[in-house]
Amino acid sequence: MTSSHRNTLYVEQAEIVSHDAYPGEQQILRIRAPKTAANATPGSFAHLQCDPQLPMRRPLSIMRVSPSEGWVDFLYKVVGQGTRLLARRKVGERIDLIGPIGTPFRLLPDRTRPLLMGGGVGIPPMVFLADSLRPRLEQYRPLVLMGSEVPFPFSPRPSQIVVPGLPDGVIGSMPLLDDWGIASRLASQQGYAGCYEGYITDLARAWLETLNDEARSQVAVYSCGPHPMLEAVAKLAREYDLPCQVSLEEFMACGVGGCAGCAVEVNTAKGPAMKRVCVDGPVFEATSVFPS
What we know:
Blueprint: H1 3-6, E1 10-22, E2 26-32, H2 34-39, E3 45-48, E4 58-66, E5 71-77, H3 81-86, E6 94-101, E7 113-119, H4 123-133, E8 143-147, E9 157-158, E10 172-173, H5 175-180, E11 183-188, E12 196-197, H6 200-208, H7 213-216, E13 219-224, H8 227-239, E14 244-247, E15 263-268, E16 271-276, E17 283-285, H9 286-289
Parallel strand pairs: 7-8, 7-13, 8-11, 11-12, 13-14
Antiparallel strand pairs: 1-2, 1-6, 2-5, 3-4, 3-6, 4-5, 9-10, 14-17, 15-16
């Protein structure tokens, strides 16, 4: 484990505050973990013990935190034994947690139009990053695009925020972000009302095409989602010469840099190198992971 993480990792016996199920086997879990809540940054995650009988932990991206109230929110999808056991956990039970882990997204102060792109369970870091921008909306004008092929884990509603350049009829938004004054739009191939019919990269391209050179020079891309989506996002960013950071999703064993089981090849100034997604990431420059 690198020294930059030694003073920011905590082991907590976190209490489940709420645990709500949504269509598509999605869950939103809120736990009381004050140390993690106080130190988490957009892009970081926690390593949770899903069940006392299952030694191997599971990494979950952090979606929201309240440092003052000490809670942390996670959105996850039931996909295997660990998350299926986790989904059975009840309010009041305690979960062993290590967090917060990982390097965060880094906002670029000279790029005042952040484009946040989240797909599926890659949505949580985008919500966290958007939340962090709330005190700085006079400086930044973010646009959050979310894609899902199962129903969204919230009830979409027509946005009250006008975004010039988006296709007609694409008005579905995440209510939470709309209430924060942050523009969001949704994309899916499932025909959901108000959503863009297609991939969020296509929706982003449609919007970018309407910007003039000056406006486009203010855009930076931040993204999390499945590998094929991130590859498409990186390609889009290269096409428009935009800086881009991606948060990788990877299977993990220890989650704290000891086992190197989550290592991926990354291009560095000294050539290709193996980097651990858990502590060297999960956020990387897109060009280092997807060079072409």
